[in-house]
Design a protein that fits this description.
174 residues, alpha/beta, 5-stranded parallel sheet, 5 strands, globular
Length: 174
């Protein structure tokens, strides 16, 4: 395993947790939302508003496909699971950790929904987005971590423990 990839809903804490986790594991940290902004010179919400959801997803996928072995904790955008090529690339050289939060927790955490760069299809509600993505997160996850109501330090400890357990199991079977 070269990379640790964080997936989950908007507001799950992927970026915040990712920085702390990278420091704890002695790895680099990559935030794919920042890569998108650097590549385009625009904010995520601006891309979605101007170019549309489909073009945003294409840009996100291009950025994911450009990542190679980087020994990093990679924080992805919540929409990354909508592109199977992107997820195949991520799973090829990394452990996928799904940071789970409840719908109510997501709504509570999302204070800046109109400026944050959340991918919602036209007419799609937050509830619809939640229901659409949960099965995808579950499908791709090697490890699932409940983050609802948990302190970041506690979540980081849980993630490190689960990574070590998962790595030991993989080593045992190879």
């Amino acid at each position: 395993m070269n990379n640790v990839i964080l997936i989950g809903l908007p507001g799950a804490g992927k970026s915040t947790l990712g920085v702390i986790l990278a420091k704890t594991l002695g790895m680099h940290f990559i935030d794919t939302d920042i890569i998108i902004q650097d590549k385009t010179g625009r904010l995520l919400q601006e891309i979605i508003n101007t170019d549309g959801v489909e073009r945003f997803l294409e840009i996100e996928e291009e950025c994911i496909l450009s990542l190679n072995k980087c020994h990093a904790v990679i924080s992805t955008g919540g929409s990354v699971v909508l592109r199977s090529r992107a997820m195949k690339h991520l799973t090829s050289d990394g452990m996928i950790i799904y940071l789970e939060i409840s719908y109510d927790e997501m709504v509570k955490r999302l204070k800046n929904i109109t400026t944050r760069g959340i991918v919602l299809e036209p007419g799609q509600s937050l509830r619809d987005m939640y229901d659409q993505r949960i099965p995808l997160y579950e499908r791709y996850a090697d490890i699932r971590i409940n983050c609802s109501g948990e302190a970041f330090e506690s979540v980081v400890e849980n993630v490190v423990l689960k990574i070590r357990e998962h790595t030991a199991v993989l080593a045992e079977h190879s």
